[in-house]
């Protein structure tokens, strides 16, 4: 018994020694509201996916980094605006040089807002549920008559790529690379289809239940965006990493190839290309899907899923979270 007690004392002493090590403390310290993700190697992409842009999975390695526990909220973005007087893309008039054929009224500030088809409508044109809405922006998500008052803990939306970059610079952080985001999303579940396992569940993330875009059964309790943290965290303690709102990454969008295979901290550089949008030459990767993703449409509430997005466009379902790299 005495020898066992001595052994326990030695173990406790070693734990205290290493926990008080300045070097170790520095490595394991993240700013408040962030989670430490220990570096490692994982298979990026999904060869069994039905989406071409996800196939071509290869092992890549990422270094340890910190990542926001939640998506950036309206309250946090308000702090940024108050401190900097920044004006988001959706709050600026459209450029006359860029849109010479539009009238002054058509170039008024605004953004794209999702609108469900009217009751009784059973067939609609693809993407016709998006409506350009003057006055829609992060303060007024559904137009000038809407507000975020009382929704301070909801993820901020109508965020264009440069808006997210501006906030990141102010916060002393950065947008995640696609590799960082995808590595963190499964929460340590190796090869899992979803962030919680291999079986879809309406209770694990804010997604669309029913037939998109015609009706939503609200089986998850929400018709639209939910407050951050409304659904269970993944294994790393990250909330809403899939569902709720899409999240910007810093990478350009392109089909997967072997140039990043077995690389360390890969970054999507160079020109972007999406065969579904051949005329658009500047597209960034967004990850995680949103509350508008349903099994019959989108279904991108998965770690391997990815989509392209024009950097100058924000909508009612695009937000972001940030990372802090522990080495340059």
Report strand %.
5-15%
Gap from first CA to last CA = 50 Å
Adjacency order of strands in the biggest sheet: 9-8-7-10
Main pleated-sheet profile:
4 strands, mixed
- Helix content range: 10-25%
Description:
- The protein is α+β, with helices and mostly antiparallel strands.
- It has helices spanning 2-19, 22-27, 74-84, 161-171, 178-184, and strands at residues 34-37, 40-44, 58-62, 65-68, 110-114, 130-134, 246-252, 284-287, 307-309, 318-319, 323-325.
- The model is unreliable at 1-26 (pLDDT under 50).
List keywords for this structure.
328 residues; single chain; 3-stranded antiparallel beta sheet; globular; 11 strands; alpha+beta; 5 helices
Could you give a short description of this structure?
The protein has 328 residues and is an alpha+beta fold. It contains 5 helices and 11 strands.
Layout of helices and strands:
Elements: H1 2-19, H2 22-27, E1 34-37, E2 40-44, E3 58-62, E4 65-68, H3 74-84, E5 110-114, E6 130-134, H4 161-171, H5 178-184, E7 246-252, E8 284-287, E9 307-309, E10 318-319, E11 323-325
């Amino acid at each position: 018994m005495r020898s066992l007690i001595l052994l326990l004392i030695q173990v406790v002493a070693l734990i205290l020694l290493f926990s008080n090590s300045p070097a170790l403390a520095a490595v394991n310290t993240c700013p408040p509201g962030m989670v430490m993700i220990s570096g490692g190697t994982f298979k990026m992409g999904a060869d069994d996916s039905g989406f071409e842009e996800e196939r071509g999975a290869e092992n890549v390695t990422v270094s340890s980094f910190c990542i926001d526990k939640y998506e950036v909220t309206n309250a946090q973005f308000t702090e940024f605006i108050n401190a900097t007087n920044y004006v988001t893309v959706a709050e600026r008039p459209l450029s006359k040089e860029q849109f010479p054929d539009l009238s002054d009224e058509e170039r008024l500030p605004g953004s794209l807002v999702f609108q469900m088809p009217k009751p009784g409508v059973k067939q609609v044109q693809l993407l016709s549920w998006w409506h350009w809405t003057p006055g829609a922006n992060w303060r007024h998500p559904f137009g000038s008559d809407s507000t975020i008052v009382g929704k301070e803990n909801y993820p901020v939306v109508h965020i264009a790529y440069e808006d997210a970059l501006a906030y990141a610079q102010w916060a002393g952080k950065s947008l995640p690379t696609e590799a960082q985001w995808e590595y963190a999303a499964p929460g340590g579940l190796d090869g899992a289809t979803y962030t919680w396992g291999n079986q879809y569940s309406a209770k694990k993330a804010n997604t669309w239940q029913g037939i998109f875009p015609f009706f939503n059964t609200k089986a998850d309790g929400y018709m639209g965006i939910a407050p951050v943290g409304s659904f269970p965290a993944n294994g790393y303690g990250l909330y809403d990493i899939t569902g709720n709102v899409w999240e910007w990454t810093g990478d350009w969008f392109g089909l997967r190839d072997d140039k990043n295979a077995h690389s360390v901290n890969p970054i999507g550089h160079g020109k972007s290309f999406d065969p579904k949008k051949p005329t658009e030459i500047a597209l960034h990767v967004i990850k995680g899907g949103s509350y508008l993703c349903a099994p019959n449409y989108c279904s991108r509430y998965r770690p391997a899923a990815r989509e392209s997005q024009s950097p100058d466009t924000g909508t009612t379902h695009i937000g972001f979270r940030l990372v802090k790299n522990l080495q340059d």
